[in-house]
Amino acid sequence: MLQDTVLRLDGIAELEDAVVVCNEEHRFMVAEQLRAINKIPSAIILEPIGRNTAPAVAVAAMQAMRDGKDPILLVLPADHVIKNKDVFQKIVSAGSRLVKDHLVTFGVVPDLPETGYGYIKSGIGLEDGGFEVERFVEKPDLATAESYLADGNYLWNSGMFMFRASLYLHQLEKFNPEMIDACRNAFTSITADLDFFRLEKESFSACPKDSIDYAVMEKTDMAAVIPLDAGWSDVGSWSSLWEANEQDAKGNVVQGDVFIDDSEGCLVHAESRLVATVGLKDHVVVETADAVLV
Length: 294
Hints:
By secondary structure, this protein is of the alpha/beta class. 31% of the residues lie in helices and 29% in strands.
């Protein structure tokens, strides 16, 4: 999924190499996955401890501005499925034209009353198909989600963003000075380790933990949203990963060297050896070099 996230950007003009932020325990996996598709990032920044998305994007912005640049950041989590790459890239291009005066988020056009996502209510229309954000709303109950779907002005909160690096840092400092101070301290003392950059542990551990949504987007008056209808799914569970992939006639999703017999509704993933299932129903089986999960 990390590889898919990077590869779906192929064809976007003037795109620089990615800045990847991950936990230090994932560093070799991330580097190897990107090397395997010949996508070498400009930096892999290692968090000593997770502090949610707002600090992660802050240090990525600082890294991107290191040479005196002020680039547009396209912020993408690595656990999304987007089936229509062309539509996605078209919406990204539209977002790049709004970032002068806005912090842009991408709101997924809902096709059912989903209770597992937060929502964004779109307000006054802007150029390039965007809208001012009227408000963010928490994950609703079913009746509320049905009313959002009927209203037509509510979008799923995708967790994808686009903005100028300097504008994001300015707004973060305005609303969360303690957070940006901790990020700056951790980034100022960053150390190189092979192909990685390690944030200073004590400073980053002292950083408040919060998402971009809560730390900035829900507070700023510069938020804009662009509707996205490109076959998006936030794959946060095994069941959603199963739903997002192509299934065989018996509802099985198979990846790798797998043999299926008398099994249905299963997700079977093999990385390093043959995996065979017999007589399973609605199971997840994941094999890696050092473990098997059932």
